[in-house]
Amino acid sequence: MSPLRRGSPKTERTPEAVMSLTEHLAELRVRIIRSALAVTLGAVTIMAFYDPVLRFLLHPYSELCEDRGREFCGSGLGADGQAQLINLDPIRGLSTRLSVATYGGLLIAIPVLMWQLWKFVVPALKSNEKKYAIPFISASVSLFALGGLLAYLTLGKALEFLISWAGEDVQSTYEISSYIRLVVLMVAAFGVGFQFPVLLVSLQLVGVLTPQQLLGWWRYSIVGIVVLAAVITPSGDPISLAALTVPMLILYFVSIGVGIIAQRRSRAAKPTATT
Q1: Most buried among 25, 81, 99, 247, using CB within 10 Å?
Q2: Is residue 115 assigned to a domain?
């Protein structure tokens, strides 16, 4: 039986790990407060450096307009040769600034949020389960960051495709809130998509799936991954679709390899446990 299966007997838990409902609620409140403080501090930091952050988010669009020129970007290219966004609502400027600060605060606070979650669930874990927590948290944060970075790096090519398909007589000028929303959705979609192997490895460790099953389903999995990537990609362009689909396919087979390694280690440990 897998070491993470929930059906394991509770008698192995130490008395110190047993908490009452009141203690659980108090612990949950502390973790939520600390998480909220981390997000708030991150949001305040982003708010203080809003202009450099906005220039960083605008960089893929600016680089595209510098390469393709005014004939391509049209009114989206300013008099100074730099890409520019517009604001059509006097209130939208403030709301966009707050949105960028909130999203940035959440992004900065992800390690703290994951740590607080781990500290909350660790009393309910047995000693042999705790060793999986930090690797899974580290893998989740790293893969989300990797997915967000890939989304940012491919954003320029996605914009190039979308602008080129708008038509020769269409002047592309983006509103700041629409552009920021696209960037946030792209980063979120790629970050969530890169969590796919973490889910598969978890299901293999708890015994819901086996590496052999996943390997046998590879044809259906390829189709499912393509469909999933098409659904969660907000821009809908083929460049972003390919940029998300290919890594997800690679990570699918990587998760199978991790499952095979864990399976072999589990089988090798059984004779030792029985002697």
Answers
A1: 247
A2: yes
188, part of any domain? no
Residue with tokens 């954003």: 155
Residue 192 lies inside a defined structural domain of this protein: no
Q: Output the six-digit token pair for 118.
A: 């781990």
Specify if 25 maps to a domain: yes
List the beta bridge partners of residue 175. 86
DSSP, collapsed to helix, strand or coil, labels residue 83 as strand
* 8 Å CB contact between 61 and 156: yes
The boundaries of the domain holding residue 105 are 18-133+155-166
Model confidence, pTM: 0.79
Chain-centre distance for alpha carbon 271: 39
| Rounded mean pLDDT for each run of 10 residues along the chain, 275 residues in total | 45 50 83 94 94 91 80 66 79 90 91 84 67 81 92 91 77 84 92 90 85 92 93 88 94 92 82 52
Count the Cβ atoms, other than its own, within 10 Å of residue 142: 12
Cβ pair 240, 182 in contact under 8 A = no
